[in-house]
Amino acid sequence: MAKVKTVRREPGEVLIEMKDICKTYVMGEEVVKANDCINLVIRMGEFVSIVGKSGSGKSTFMNIIGALDVPTSGQYLLGGEDVGDMTQNELADIRNRMIGFVFQQYNLLPKLSILENVELPLLYARVSSSERRERAMKQLERVGLQDKCQNRPNQLSGGQQQRVSIARALAGNPAILLADEPTGALDSRTSGQILRFFKELNEEGNTIVMITHDNSIALQAKRVVRITDGKINFDGPAAEYAEVIRAGQLAEARPAAAGKLAETGRSEESERPEETGRPEETGRPEEVG
Ligand SMILES: Nc1ncnc2c1ncn2[C@@H]1O[C@H](COP(=O)(O)OP(=O)(O)OP(=O)(O)O)[C@@H](O)[C@H]1O
Ligand SMILES: [Mg+2]
């Protein structure tokens, strides 16, 4: 049984450590290696995007990172704890302690107020009601939505709902903010606001892992991990990834070119980042009409 221990939160500390992680799905005769021998270390204070095309294995990988699923083989240490042999209850427990989830479709409960939504993870963590309210309000202030605390989710814009979901993720004081296509349902202006907010949160010391299929969004992180056919074929600074996709080097997959580019043995389509027309200024997410 996995040993439960208190997580130290020190900059540079290893939060995610994966050794030869594989996830295989068997569909009748067909065996799909959705994640194929992934080795990855993510430290406290990083802002990492996991990028890949549809079917490359991102969701599979996110489910493993977030302890929503366990790998078929390999070892995953989350905050130093081995996730591989955990029971469903232990997985739920480590998720509560370590991960704050942000989903594309916000996943807010429609019948609860904004404040009650943000309080929810604290309720699961058995935090007292007065402390829940205080911590949830603090997070709503942080995302600039304290005035909307009594509203229902459907009374808010998409960008506002996503900010509520970020507040909910932060309320549990997680070691890692794990975001799955967090701007996937938003227009480019609102996406820019959410990404700038992630950058601010990262500058404040939060560790962020963001899953996306979009290179231009992936480049907003500090480090990019690229998945192709379930394998990592790039892992390095965003600036280096920008160079690699500009030069079309992922099609060649030459290890010497970027230092961290691995052989894939297959060609890919154009990898140029898309234009988003996103403004570059920084600041808190603003209200959108
Ligand atoms: N539960 C499952 N059973 C069988 N095969 C699966 C299952 N989940 C995923 N796969 C397969 O594993 C591969 C990776 O899927 P995954 O959902 O991780 O891709 P993705 O990168 O998230 O794609 P998208 O961008 O479209 O969401 C695909 O070939 C997919 O068909
Ligand atoms: Mg997916």
Give a description of the structure.
- The structure is a single chain.
- Helices cover 33% and strands 24% of the residues.
- It has 289 residues and is α/β, with parallel strands linked by helices.
- The chain has a domain at 14-179 and 193-209: Rossmann fold.
- Strands 6-7-8-3-9-10 form a six-stranded mixed sheet, sandwiched between helices.
- A hairpin with a 2-residue loop joins strand 4 and strand 5 (81-82).
- Residues 1-6 and 252-289 have low confidence and may be disordered.
- Magnesium ion is lined by residues 58-59.
CATH architecture of the domain at 14-179 and 193-209: 3-Layer(aba) Sandwich
Spatial strand order of the main sheet: 6-7-8-3-9-10
Bound molecules: adenosine-5'-triphosphate, magnesium ion
Task: Provide mean pLDDT, rounded.
Answer: 84
- What overall form do the CA principal axes indicate? globular
| CATH topology group of the domain at 14-179 and 193-209 | Rossmann fold
End-to-end C-alpha gap: 51 Å
Structural class estimated from helices and strands: alpha/beta
How large is the count of helical segments? 10
Radius of gyration: 19 Å
Proportion of residues in helical segments: 25-40%
In terms of DSSP E residues, the strand content is 15-25%
Tell me the quaternary state: single chain
Order of helices and strands: EEEHEEHEHHHEHEHEEHHH
Summarize the main sheet: 6 strands, mixed
